[in-house]
User: Which sequence fits this backbone?
C-alpha cells in the first residue's frame, strides 16, 4: 500500500508530467511538417496513456479519496 502523502506527491508529479508532455505538442504545432507532428503527437499520447494507466490509476485505486474526478 502506498502511503497517502507519497500518493499525493506521485499524483502531483504525474499530472505535471502529463502537462509537460502536452506542452510539447503545443510547442511543435505549426513548426514542423504534418507527418512529423503526427509522429510526435502519437508518441506523446502513448506516453500520457502509460502515465495514466500505469501510474495514476493504481494510486487512485488505492486512494480514491484523492481522485478529484469522482
Assistant:
Amino acid at each position: 500500500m502506498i502511503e497517502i502523502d507519497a500518493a499525493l506527491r506521485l499524483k502531483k508529479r504525474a499530472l505535471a508530467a502529463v502537462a509537460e508532455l502536452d506542452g510539447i505538442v503545443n510547442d511543435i504545432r505549426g513548426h514542423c511538417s504534418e507527418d512529423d507532428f503526427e509522429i510526435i503527437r502519437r508518441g506523446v499520447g502513448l506516453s500520457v496513456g502509460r502515465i495514466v494507466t500505469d501510474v495514476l490509476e493504481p494510486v487512485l485505486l488505492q486512494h480514491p479519496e484523492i481522485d478529484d474526478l469522482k
The chain has one domain: 4-66. Residues 34-62 form the longest helix (29 residues). Residues 7 and 63 are 8 Å apart (CA to CA).
